[in-house]
């Protein structure tokens, strides 16, 4: 039913240029896409907002290319992933991403700021593709097949990235006082 509603809204945007229908799609996916970027940028809320805005602009300008071969959410996450990848490639500063400070202001709303910061610090230890797979699978509850479509790699490779990423996260967190019994 969720996908049918998305298709109906997409059709209204494409056929009737109904911006209110697109607004509904933005409202529905705004938080998940922003959270996706927030995890990829290791807590940089300003950059996450900018990237999310870019993703929705690209989605709107290219919505007529949506062919319904996958879920609308998969198509939107693919755009979001490409926006992030283009940002990293254009900046050519992946080391800056590794040294970026966590936006503690955004984390204040969390129950335990320290744990949230530790999560972002641990995500910095992952390669971009591992961080993307971990974020989509564990934080956005996206299936492995959908992740494969979003990132453009085989499902088996997604599983490998999840396994390696999980192992790196566990090692980092154990080294920093998390024993797994919390």
Explained architecture:
By secondary structure, the protein is mainly α. The protein is built from ten helices and no strands. The longest helix is centred in the first third of the chain and has 22 residues, at 19-40.
Considering DSSP H and I runs of 4 or more, what fraction of the residues is helical? over 70%
User: What is Rg?
Assistant: 17 Å
Number of helices: 10
Structural class estimated from helices and strands: mainly alpha
Q: What is the N-to-C order of secondary-structure elements (H for helix, E for strand)?
A: HHHHHHHHHH
Mean pLDDT across the residues is 86
Biggest sheet, open or closed, and with what strands and sense?
none
Shape: elongated
Strand content: under 5%
- Total beta strand runs: 0
List keywords for this structure.
10 helices, 75% helix, mainly alpha, elongated, 182 residues, single chain
List the helices and strands and how they pair.
Blueprint: H1 2-16, H2 19-40, H3 45-61, H4 72-91, H5 94-99, H6 104-107, H7 113-124, H8 128-139, H9 144-151, H10 155-175
Helix pairs in contact: 1-2, 2-3, 2-4, 3-4, 4-9, 7-10, 8-10, 9-10
């Amino acid at each position: 039913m969720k996908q049918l509603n998305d298709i109906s809204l997409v059709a209204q945007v494409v056929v009737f240029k109904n911006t209110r229908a697109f607004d509904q799609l933005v409202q529905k996916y705004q938080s998940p896409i922003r959270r996706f970027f927030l995890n990829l940028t290791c807590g940089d809320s300003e950059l996450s907002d900018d990237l999310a805005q870019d993703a929705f602009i690209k989605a709107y300008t290219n919505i007529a290319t949506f062919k319904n071969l996958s879920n609308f959410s998969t198509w939107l996450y693919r755009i979001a992933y490409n926006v992030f990848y283009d940002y990293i490639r254009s900046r050519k500063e992946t080391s800056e991403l590794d040294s970026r400070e966590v936006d503690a202001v955004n984390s204040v709303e969390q129950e335990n700021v320290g744990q949230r910061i530790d999560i972002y610090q641990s995500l910095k230890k992952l390669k971009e593709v591992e961080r993307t797979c971990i974020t989509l699978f564990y934080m956005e509850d996206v299936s492995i097949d959908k992740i494969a479509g979003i990132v453009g790699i085989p499902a088996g490779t997604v599983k490998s990235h999840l396994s390696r990423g999980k192992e790196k996260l566990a090692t980092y967190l154990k080294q920093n006082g998390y024993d797994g019994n919390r």
